[in-house]
Write a structure and sequence with these properties.
This protein is mostly helical. It contains three helices and no strands. Helix 1 packs across helix 2 and helix 2 runs antiparallel to helix 3.
């Protein structure tokens, strides 16, 4: 059922947030992990929906730059 899928997806997201934050419990670590994963997923999605390779490359480059600024 869709509820089972949502529960499974939530568990995977929690695991990814833990990985992205290195299981750091410091204030803001989880928030930064969430933003990083959202940035990655969003950048990959947006870069794939355009036929314009320059735009696609720019999206990925800017996301990478932003994530390096966070680390």
């Amino acid at each position: 059922s869709s509820d089972e899928v949502k529960v499974a997806a939530g568990a995977v997201l929690e695991e990814l947030f833990g990985l992205f934050s290195n299981d750091d419990s410091a204030p803001g670590a989880r928030a930064e992990a969430i933003v990083a994963l959202c940035t990655l997923v969003g950048a990959m999605t947006l870069s794939r929906v355009t036929a314009n390779t320059r735009l696609s490359d720019e999206i990925l480059k800017q996301a990478k730059h932003h994530l390096h600024e966070l680390s």
